Each structure stands twice: as C-alpha cells, then as structure tokens.
Amino acid sequence: MEVLTTGGAFSLLTTANATSAATSQAARLGTLVLSRYPSLTPEAVRGLLVHAAEWTPAMAAHFPTPREGSLKSKRYALLKRYGWGAPTEARVLASAAGDVTMIVEDEFRPFARSKSSISMRAMRLHTLPWPSDLLQDLENAPVRMRVTLSYFIEPNPSNRGWQGRYAYASHGLRFDVIRPTESLADFHKRLSNAAEGEERGVRTTSATDDRWFLGQARNSGSLHADIWSGHAVDLARCGVIAVYPVGGWWKQNNRRDRVSVPVRYALLVSLFTEVQADIHTPIASKIQVPVQIDT
Known about the structure:
By secondary structure, the chain is of the alpha+beta class. The protein has helices spanning 19-36, 42-51, 57-60, 71-82, 89-93, 132-138, 184-199, 232-235, 249-252, 280-287; strands at residues 2-5, 14-17, 99-108, 111-113, 118-120, 124-127, 142-151, 172-177, 223-231, 240-246, 263-273. The chain has 2 domains: 1-36; 98-287.
C-alpha cells in the first residue's frame, strides 16, 4: 500500500507506504463496513476485509505455474508475501448477480469436561443454500467457491506458550466442505480423524483435496481462507460446510474454568461463476431475503 499526502508545514507532497499506510486504509474499510452493516460482529468485519481481497495484476504476475515444483507450497510462499491481495470498497460492500456472498455468525461450546480431562465435543454443520438445479444445468462450467473463517483466540503469552503448537492459542477452529460423493456420516468421520490427527501432528491424506488453492496450509493463525475451483455440477453436491475445533491451551492445560466459555466465529462463503448466470436470485429465494420495491 502507498498513500499520497499533501500534509506538512509547507504542503509538500510525500508518500507513506507499508503498514503505516495499509493500517489506516484497512481501518477506513472496516469503518465503512460497520456503517453499512452495523449489526456485524468484529469477527465478521475482519473476515470480510480478507474475503473481499483480490491480487493485483502485479501480484498475480508472481503466481507459480504447475511446472514449478510443489504448486501448493509455492502458493503458500506467495501468500506469505502478498496475503490474499488488496480489498476494494466496492467488493467489500456489495456483491453482483454472478458473485454472491453469504455471512454466517455463530457460536458454540467446543469442549466437554470429563472426570480427568477435557475433550472436544462439538462441531457446527451449515447447510449452504446452493442453487443446485442451476449449478447442475451449468454442468462442467468452471466455478469457484471462496471460504473465510474468522475468530479470535485467548492468547497465553507465558514462557511455556512457546513450547508447543497448541500452547499459545486457547483453541483453534477449522472448516471443511463435504465432497460431491461423500455421505454425511463419512464427512463426520473424516473431520474427527482430521482434528485428532492435527493434534498428534499427523497429516491425514484423506483431508487433502487438489481443488483447494491451499488445502491444509490454510490452517495457520485464527483467520483461515481458501478457494475451491472445479465444475459446477460437482459444487452442486457440496452443500454442507463444517466448522470444528482443535485443541489449544484451554484443552491441553485442562482449564475447567474455560469449558463453558462459548467461542464465536464468522463464516463467509462466496460463489463465483465464469458464465452468465444469475445465482443471486435462487439463493435469495431459498433464504427468503426480503425484496425491496422502489415506488
């Protein structure tokens, strides 16, 4: 980010860049979001700024090609350099007919207390109001689904907080989407295995899917984003998304005073088509969005 300013004692032109400029611009976008949508939670506002970001042509010029070795590792390196790109006011505040965004704000208690320990007990399943008939009619047309999960953690900045992956954050959340040929029972089983495997430091091969831009590399920090690319007919059968917990110091330290504390999150899902198709109307009809009539 670089900003031109006319401030100064002699009204000289100067520039500000890097985080000094980006912080003020991000704060402005966050303020605009709250002004337009005052009921949104901080988790949703934070997620929306990342969800609406896009890579500029200059950033995209550094994207790896499939012949450059491990494609996902190259993408992750690029993400560490540019993040998800730069959000614009237009994209943050509005969606077009061929580009629709759904925001879910929810909370749940992810842990349960037994006699001797704390275990994970819950996940959230969200049924997406997909226009399945329309997507099936589009058949092999290319579509993209963008997902962002935003939440805040309680940090543990003590010395022992650096001794393990799950010692600093109070808890972690993850998201995943049911696959086209996967039953709900198999989806549950895969997520349980993925959560348990992550805590043991084991990456389960069943959790990988080449249609995701990042895949498992998206799970750092407390804001996770990824993009699914594929055929419309396949996405028509991917109508369930899960948010599930992984352990943190609340669980590892057996903090019984934190078991009943709910964790809050915002889940943002966008659907993009590369063909002329109105996906907004059937989604709005399913969730019964009121239609404003100008008179």
